[in-house]
Each structure stands twice: as structure tokens, then as C-alpha cells.
């Protein structure tokens, strides 16, 4: 039996470093992005840089897909050979079926598992995994870890200003009328994740006003936030600008820059910028 009796599972939308994944033997289930008839495993067959270059060159927007049931089952079968328990933390179930797939795989294989819908993705999802692993390192039991991480989804925050409304409109996030009006008036929309779903929070005139709006959200939770990332989709210049502004305004918070991986980047669109954090 492996020295660590808890196996960790997440998916490729989590922003975990390769070093962290290797050190803690985390099983990362890749989601898929599909261009035409070709499916690519996110962060395996196609990394963010190559994805956004390809996205800029195609006329038909890609689709996304969850892992097949068979892939999930094989992972859980392997885990069962070496571990007593599984804790799986996945991207919001409203974006992909990874969460439901993990539940089904656990039932199919008879693994003692707790599967958590993070109700979010990207940086906050990665931070949930990091906090869960830290609890194990502190000597907490499986049940103790589960009781703590159940509270984490309510603390995740993700705000985005999409570079384009086309993909969001196709996904039903904004209506056709909202898309036309926002485009004609050169307005930016601010989306927020609420209970796992992206909802239209505000409409603003510029990126500057978008920053101001997100700062308002951050200020309401400032006492419970120590780390914030500026999220972007192939828009490093704008993200760096945001980070510079925010660091001056909030010197006690650690700010990072995180690029959206291919699957969420497909839905948000190139040029997207936003903020994300996981409250304490």
C-alpha cells in the first residue's frame, strides 16, 4: 500500500504546477478540446500557447469534451490497487462532465471516494487541491479533510471580461440581443461564477472600468484574501497591466498571472482578462 493512503484526482483545468503534481502523485484527468475531427487532450496533446495560436487561425470555433467513462474507470482502478481513499476535486459540473464521471467511476470500481464539484475552475480549483493536500500533510484523516474541503466551493471567486461575446452567446451565457448591443456600444461585460454557473454581472464601457468593477468585488472580501491571480486568455500584455495596477493598490496581497487552459479558454474566448481567488 502506498505510504499516502489518499489518492488525489483533479482535471486539467486546475492550475497546478508540474512539480506539485509530481511531488504529490496527483492524478490529472485531461479534458478535450476538439478542432474539426481532431480531439486534443488539454495540456497533454496541446498546450495553451499552441491552442491560442490555432484558435486565432480557424474559422470554426472548437468544441470541448469530458473524459470518456472508460478513461475515468481505468484511473480509479489503478488507484484502488495502491490507495485506501480517493479525493477528487473537479471543475464546475456546468462546464464539463468530469465531476459526474468521477462519481460514476468511483461507484463502478468500489473505491472509497469523495468527489467535490468545485463550482469553479482554473486558479481557485488548483488552490482547493493545494489546501486539501496540505491538510493531509498536517496529519488530518480522510474524514477530517473532507469536512474542511466541503466548505471551499463557497469561497471561490472568478470574474471575467471576455474578449469576444461570440462564444459566450453560442454557449447561452449571453443573449443575442445583449451581444449585439454590447458590440455596437463597444461595451465590456463582466461575468462572475455563481454556484457553478457563469452569469452576467455587469456591463462597462472599457477595460479600465472592468478593473474598477472587479476591484469593488475584491474590496468586499479583502480581509479573507491573501492571493489573487489575474486570469487571461492569450492577453498577457493586458494581464500584466492589471497586475501592476492591483499590486500598487493592494500591497499586502500576492498577485499572480494565470493563463486560461484550452477548455475554459474555448468558452471565454481569446483576449479575456479577469480576476480569481479562493478566500481563506
UniProtKB/TrEMBL annotation:
This is DegV family protein. Keywords: Lipid-binding. It comes from Paenisporosarcina antarctica. It comes from the Bacteria. PANTHER family: DEGV DOMAIN-CONTAINING PROTEIN DR_1986-RELATED, FATTY ACID-BINDING PROTEIN TM_1468. The keyword Isomerase does not apply. One of its GO terms (molecular function) is lipid binding. Pfam families: DegV.
Amino acid at each position: 500500500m502506498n505510504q499516502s493512503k489518499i489518492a488525489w484526482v483533479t482535471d486539467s483545468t486546475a492550475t497546478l504546477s508540474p512539480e506539485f503534481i509530481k511531488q504529490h502523485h496527483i492524478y490529472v484527468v485531461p479534458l478535450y478540446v476538439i478542432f474539426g475531427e481532431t480531439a486534443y487532450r488539454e495540456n497533454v496533446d496541446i498546450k495553451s500557447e499552441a491552442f491560442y495560436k490555432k484558435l486565432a487561425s480557424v474559422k470554426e470555433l472548437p468544441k470541448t469534451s469530458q473524459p470518456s467513462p472508460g478513461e475515468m474507470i481505468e484511473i480509479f482502478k489503478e488507484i484502488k490497487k495502491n490507495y485506501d481513499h480517493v479525493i477528487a476535486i473537479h471543475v464546475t459540473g456546468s462546464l464539463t462532465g468530469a465531476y459526474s464521471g468521477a462519481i460514476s467511476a468511483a461507484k463502478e470500481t468500489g473505491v472509497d471516494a469523495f468527489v467535490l464539484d468545485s463550482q469553479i475552475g482554473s486558479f481557485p480549483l488548483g488552490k482547493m487541491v493545494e489546501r486539501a493536500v496540505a491538510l493531509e500533510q498536517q496529519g488530518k484523516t480522510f474524514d477530517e479533510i473532507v469536512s474542511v474541503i466541503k466548505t471551499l466551493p463557497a469561497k471561490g471567486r472568478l470574474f471575467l471580461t471576455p474578449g469576444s461575446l461570440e462564444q459566450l452567446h453560442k454557449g447561452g451565457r449571453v443573449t443575442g440581443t445583449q451581444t449585439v448591443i454590447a458590440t455596437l456600444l463597444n461595451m465590456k461585460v463582466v461575468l462572475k461564477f455563481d454556484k457553478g454557473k457563469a452569469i452576467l454581472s455587469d456591463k462597462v464601457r472599457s477595460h479600465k472600468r472592468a478593473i474598477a468593477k472587479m476591484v469593488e468585488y475584491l474590496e468586499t472580501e479583502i480581509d479573507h484574501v491573501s492571493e489573487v491571480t489575474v486570469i487571461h486568455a492569450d492577453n498577457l500584455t493586458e494581464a500584466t497591466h492589471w497586475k501592476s495596477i492591483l499590486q500598487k493598490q493592494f500591497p499586502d496581497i500576492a498577485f499572480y498571472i494565470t493563463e486560461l487552459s484550452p477548455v475554459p479558454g474555448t468558452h471565454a474566448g481569446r483576449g479575456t482578462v479577469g480576476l480569481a481567488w479562493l478566500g481563506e
